[in-house]
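Researcher: Let's run the pair from yesterday's discussion. Sequence first, then tokens, for each.
Model: Starting with the first of the pair.
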Amino acid sequence: MPEPMIGHNVFFQLHDNTPAARQSLVDACKKYLTGHPGEASFAAGTLAETLDRPVNVRNWDVALHIIFQTKADHDRYQNAERHLRFIEENKGNWKMVRVFDSEIEV
């Protein structure tokens, strides 16, 4: 049985959650968090304002979604220089960060 892929989903709630601040974090995600070894898929974006059903969790501003080929790829990414620089440059506006990692079956 092949090793499962890793889904790395991060939800950021911002102190300054203006549209400009949200876009700034999405842009930083694109700058620092794309193109890492073993990255099978990357996406980042803001809360979908028009989707407001009772089941929608809405206490976040920006979402990051990365799928890694292997756990080793995920682990390497965690200590990658560009990932650490992303954290250092952006953490000052983070009110809360939630990380949801999962094993992906395809």
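Model: Moving on to the second of the pair.
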Amino acid sequence: MISLKELLHGNQESDFTPEIMENAHFLLIRVNVIRKEWNKPMVVTSGLRTQADQARINPKATKSNHLTGHAIDILDEGLHLTRWLKTEGADLAACLGLYFELGNKDWVHMQDVPPKSGNRWFLP
């Protein structure tokens, strides 16, 4: 199971508002359902981000869902998880209300808020 510590990715709960932490807890519940069904280890490459993290990682994305506890990135070398999410895991992902970013080379971005397009798989 993915832990809160992994989602915090080196940050502390006190770095975030109670609302952001509540969002993060709900995201973890959904992602851990995926993790259980995928039945393989999942490594968090980016989770909750502070403003300083965001400025370092992607300064152009000032409204990133990572800032509000609504997004997580999972290592996906070979894109095996991505393929599973598009096929066998597609119905589960839709039921859980998860959305995924297209175009990543070795990770999958999951978020629990719809993108502007409303598409399950979207371009940033």
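Researcher: Give me one sentence on the second I can quote.
Model: The first strand starts at residue 44 and ends at 46.
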